Amino acid sequence: MDYFDAVILGIVEGLTEFLPVSSTGHLTIAEKALGLKINDPSITAYTAVIQMGAIAAVLLYFWRDIWRIAAAWFKGLVQPEYRGHFDHRFGWYIIVGSIPIGIVGFLGKDVISGSLRSLWWVGGALVAWSAVMVYAERVGSQKRGERDLTMADSIVVGLLQCVALVPGVSRSGATISAGLLRGLDRVTATRLSFFLSIPALTAAGLYELKDALHSDIGVGPTVVGTLVSFVVAYAAVAWLLKFVGSHSITWFVPYRLVLGLGLLALLATNVISAT
């Protein structure tokens, strides 16, 4: 991988990590287009590490909220009067909601970085999960705001986050859809999706960091890709929060379908290979 590849992948990661279009799916497609081996463990590790740039963007964008929630959570551990505060409970929601993907991601690491790194999975999941997004928008009442969140909401959304380990589903597409199905409004579901992304993607990035730095890719391209993803992701986060305030997530469905069906057609006609 050279620096041009690193910049391209950083842009793709930052742009797609929080949009409901699947960053892993887009990275897999981009890696294939750049002539990289998409099932190479070093490429898989690189993909996980540059996600930390996107997470840094979320931390910066929401730093006031994160500081307030963290402070309330720690205070509640030693001062009972804080345990009834929403910010203290929200801290627990994020912790508990992040457990499922941690367990599934760790136990299924070999499958996730192996057989699932196929463009057949990407194309199929892009199409299939689009139906879930449409269903969630149609049946979700969207009557509940952030202050109405419960532990059950966080657990359900956290469980659905595991589905996004399949490239093409989209972590944000899965979690926002889950939130809508729980009756949350779009902005609340999207914010919950952002907060749940912090532990999940940070853990994945740190776990793969050693392998990425000691691979043939090297430190330079890894740093460049991460920095580029940070800058692009910050803009994407700000845009998405504004967008979902007045637009359905089904706006992304036509793009997902065109990309997914187009990819499947190319694979079926042997124009491109799956790995």
Sequence of secondary-structure elements: HHHHHHHHHHHH
Classification by helices and strands? mainly alpha
- How many beta-strand segments? 0
**Binned strand content:** under 5%
Query: Would you identify the regions where 5 or more consecutive residues have pLDDT less than 50?
Result: none
- Give the number of domains: 1
Largest sheet: none
Q: Indicate the percent of residues in helices.
A: over 70%
Q: Using the CA coordinates, give the radius of gyration.
A: 18 Å
Shape: globular
Distance between the termini: 17 Å
Average residue-wise pLDDT: 91
Structure annotation, total helices: 12
Description:
The protein is mainly α and 275 residues long. It has one domain (3-268). Helices cover 73% and strands 0% of the residues. It contains 12 helices and no strands.
Secondary structure topology:
Elements: H1 3-16, H2 23-33, H3 41-61, H4 63-78, H5 86-107, H6 109-112, H7 119-139, H8 151-161, H9 171-181, H10 186-213, H11 219-244, H12 253-268
Helix pairs in contact: 1-2, 1-3, 1-11, 2-7, 3-10, 3-11, 4-5, 5-8, 5-10, 7-9, 7-12, 8-9, 9-10, 10-11
